[in-house]
Design a protein that fits this description.
This protein has about 375 residues and is an alpha/beta fold. The protein is about 50% helix and about 10% strand. It has one domain (about 45-365).
């Protein structure tokens, strides 16, 4: 009969198997380090990918912080312009970035209004068209649905989000998601070089824009044409930048401008007034902020919806605080490389200006 001691020895791994396992792990680590080094040599760097999971993690944070939260919603302008650490230092609050690049914020605002845990202050990065509700199934709708249906109250998605974000922030390989065939080619052909990304995302969903990495003035020209509407342009090819600039000035001047506020404008604000009232009734303080645009972009924006008959009327009728960059010299002094977004080098200074304006408005109220 075998003793109990001899039986348990049979379950122990053999020394040779243990050594093979250790060697296999070491080889895998060495291979990953080799691939990571080669990818970084081509110009690729780690970059956090914005995603429903990453947004949901911040959305949950906004709810957990409660009255000490300073929640930012809107689009890419606020994501690129606001430095969360500077905002925290000046206001004493805990900023949370819920803006979503390339989309409108209304579904996010509705989601916040329906959550009784949201009791902090809210900065809304807006333009006049974004004040109106749209029945459109876009990114904000999808991300708020993901948060409510697949993230809120669950441990696994929160853990998965943190793990993914950590790996993306550390690894060019993981954050780039190379197809296998392209990866092999990149690793063994060192002549392949990749231009650094001019936009990079942080773990707290700020976006840093390094516009020294883009080709100017082509980048700015493209932004202007897209903002105006390429199909509306009478001409799209130019020999010089001056020719382009002169042509755009002529196009903008030819736009038919309104001279008075449309009669249904205030009525169309009823949706956003209803949503924000839900928030203010439970103590949320709301700031509508028109972030800067400049050069031709601002001329296009203001020609389509002149500030005096749109924004100023909205500011007079809403019970909430409004901040338009054109009313504050400190917010106008920044150069926007593409006419629409701030460069990362100006984020802290701009945020300080905006934060101090908010504090001054609050002190006047008191």
């Amino acid at each position: 009969m075998h003793s109990s001691t001899s039986s348990s020895n049979k379950t122990l791994p053999k020394p040779g198997n243990t050594l093979s396992l250790i060697l296999g792990v070491l080889l895998a680590i060495i291979a990953l380090l080799f691939v990571e080094t080669r990818l970084r040599a081509t110009g690729l760097k780690p970059n956090v990918r914005d995603s429903p999971e990453l947004w949901a993690a911040q959305r949950e944070l906004a709810a957990r912080i409660g009255k000490d939260a300073l929640i930012i919603i809107g689009g890419s302008r606020s994501q690129l312009a606001i430095d969360l650490e500077t905002l925290k230092d000046i206001t004493g609050l805990k900023p949370v970035m819920l803006s979503i690049n390339g989309s409108r914020y209304f579904p996010v605002l509705e989601d916040l209004a329906d959550d009784p845990r949201i009791t902090g202050k809210i900065i809304i990065d807006t333009e006049i068209p974004h004040l109106f509700k749209q029945n459109k199934h876009d990114k904000p709708v999808e991300w708020t649905e993901f948060y409510n249906d697949k993230y809120k109250g669950l441990l696994a998605p929160a853990f998965e989000s943190k793990l993914k974000t950590f790996l993306q922030n550390q690894s060019a390989l993981y954050s780039s998601l190379f197809p296998f065939d392209k990866l092999i080619q990149t690793i063994f052909q060192p002549k392949n070089k990749y231009s650094p990304r001019y936009l990079t995302t942080t773990v707290d969903r700020q976006i840093n824009g390094d516009y020294s990495l883009v080709q100017q003035p082509q980048f700015y020209v493209t932004r202007v044409m897209k903002t105006f509407g390429i199909k509306r342009l009478k001409k799209t090819r130019f020999q010089t930048f001056q020719e382009f600039n002169n042509h755009m000035l002529h196009e903008i001047a030819s736009l038919k401008n309104r001279d008075k506020t449309p009669p249904n404008f205030i009525k169309k604000l009823s949706d956003i007034n209803e949503v924000t009232k839900k928030l203010s009734d439970r103590g949320c303080e709301i700031f509508f902020v028109r972030f800067p645009t400049d050069k031709l972009i601002w001329l296009i924006n203001n020609a389509g919806r002149p500030k005096p008959i749109y924004w100023d009327v909205f500011a007079q009728t809403t019970p909430h605080k409004t901040i338009h960059f054109n009313d504050y010299e400190g917010l106008q002094r920044f150069f926007l490389p593409d006419g629409s977004h701030l460069d990362q080098k100006d984020k802290k200074a701009f945020t300080a200006e905006l934060a101090n304006i908010i504090l001054n408005i609050q002190s006047r109220k008191q």
